[in-house]
Automatic annotation (TrEMBL):
The keyword ATP-binding applies. Its EC number is 6.3.1.12. Residues 131-338 form the ATP-grasp domain. Gene3D superfamilies: ATP-grasp fold, B domain. It comes from Paeniglutamicibacter kerguelensis. This is D-aspartate ligase. SUPFAM superfamilies: Glutathione synthetase ATP-binding domain-like. The keyword Nucleotide-binding applies.
Length: 422
């Protein structure tokens, strides 16, 4: 699908995952806009689509070449039928947001950039810096120890004593502070997030990561009890003055457990959460944030508090739960960054409507719904208040629907192999 020359603006979205497609769908649903999408490889998620123009670029790790390619898209798409038209540059993953922030000066010649600068990005997304910010704002977070893999003086043998001092028991969670660098790493047994049960496992993991060339920090954290359904998310939009204008929260029902997707939500119920809103707003105000952000947190059954894990400097991979519930996220980008700004009244909206977002077949989903959510989930299903981001009626290519069918059914195999028995 080529972008019509008469289209008034063009979203250019870096990425090719389900969050990228969701964003293209949202622009199409709300504005009738065809988006330019830049995946590293073509996948069934974006292939054969009627609502986007896929422009794959394989070598996205080569920043200079990638920058030249993105700027070339700026030159191409900025010329509309009636003259120059605005281009909105968006990122589907953390590495894209980092790329945009580093090259913002050159990119702004061609694009509107709805993201914060590098200094705010560092303060919000480097996990050790994020937890320092939580501490200063009195926002709960899991007990944490940070190990610097680049520091030759950081003794792996001393980690157990440091964990004891910080009251982080084993088993514990281990995750990278620099998710982009971690994604480029290769070593046996690597996962997105690790759970280590013993001191020996912890030392082995840190040694392997360091030997593989990881030079960032590793965050070792208290493993909060409870399953997937203890996880919650909160998505915010802040205007260009740094004022929080919108929030939407959700409770995770089921997560994926395949190694490469561990921790990704597979089903979410959109629902209000005043505690998350208060804490997230406090942090975003401190940061002077602009645009979308998303927090991950878990309800700790030991003390009833929400423990904050991280701030994502963008819409989450599964952000479609917001638009499916009725608040199409593309409106915020267009009104705030391409038009006259969001209306002043109301100044802040917490979206209240409940809705079920799922990428799983309903039969499979029902196996994993926690007991305290079964009645609500069944009510949402019976009232047709549920959505899958790839199920879009404007898509008419049968090859695409074949892919969606196969990939949806493939969840049965993945859950049987990787998911703990319900």
């Amino acid at each position: 699908m080529r972008i019509p020359s008469e289209q008034s603006f063009v979203p250019v979205i870096l990425g090719g995952d389900i969050g990228t497609y969701s964003l293209a769908r949202e622009f199409h649903q709300e504005h009738g806009a065809i988006s330019a999408v830049v995946p590293s490889v073509m996948t069934g998620i974006v292939d054969h689509s009627r609502i986007l123009d896929a422009r794959p670029f394989a070598d996205q790790g080569n920043e200079a070449a990638f920058l030249d390619f993105v700027i070339s898209l700026g030159r191409e798409f900025s010329a509309g039928a009636s003259g120059p038209r605005p281009l909105l540059l968006l990122g589907g993953a953390d590495q894209h947001i980092r790329f945009i922030a580093r090259n913002a000066e050159r990119l702004r010649v061609w694009f509107t950039v709805p993201y914060v600068g590098e200094s705010q990005l560092d303060r919000a997304t480097e996990k050790d810096a994020f937890y320092e910010l939580c501490r200063s704002l009195d926002i709960p977070f899991p007990g944490t120890v940070v190990h610097d893999c680049a520091d030759a003086a950081a003794d792996i043998e001393a980690l157990p004593a440091r964990l004891a001092e910080a009251t982080v028991p084993l088993p514990a969670i281990v995750k990278p502070s620099d998710g982009v660098a971690w994604g480029q790493l290769e070593f046996a047994g690597k996962k997105k997030v690790h759970t280590v049960a013993t001191e020996a496992e912890l030392k082995d993991l840190v040694s392997k990561a360091t030997a593989a060339g990881y030079a960032g920090t590793l965050v070792i954290q208290d493993l909060i009890p409870g399953g997937d359904s203890g996880m919650h998310i909160a998505t915010f939009f802040s205007d260009q003055s740094g004022k929080v204008r919108f929030a939407s929260c959700g409770r995770v029902i089921v997560e994926e457990h395949a190694p490469g997707a561990l921790g990704n939500s597979a089903a979410i119920v959109a629902q209000p959460n005043d505690v998350a809103i208060e804490a997230g707003t406090k942090m975003l105000n401190e940061l002077g944030w602009t645009g979308f952000s998303m927090f991950d947190m878990k309800l700790d059954p030991r003390d009833g508090s929400y423990k904050f894990f991280e701030l994502n400097p963008r819409l989450g991979r599964n952000h479609f739960y917001i638009s499916a519930a009725g608040a199409n996220v593309s409106r915020f980008y267009v009104q705030e960054f391409l038009q006259d700004g969001l209306p002043e009244d109301p100044e802040f909206t917490q979206f209240q409507d409940e809705h079920l977002y799922t990428i799983l077949p309903l039969r499979l989903l029902r196996r994993y719904v926690p007991e305290d959510m079964k009645q609500k989930v069944e009510k949402l299903i019976s009232s047709k208040s549920y959505s899958h981001p790839l199920f879009y009626r404007k898509e008419t290519d049968p090859r695409r629907w074949y892919y969606i069918l196969v990939s949806t059914l493939n969840h049965y195999r993945k859950f049987k192999r990787h998911y703990p028995a319900p």
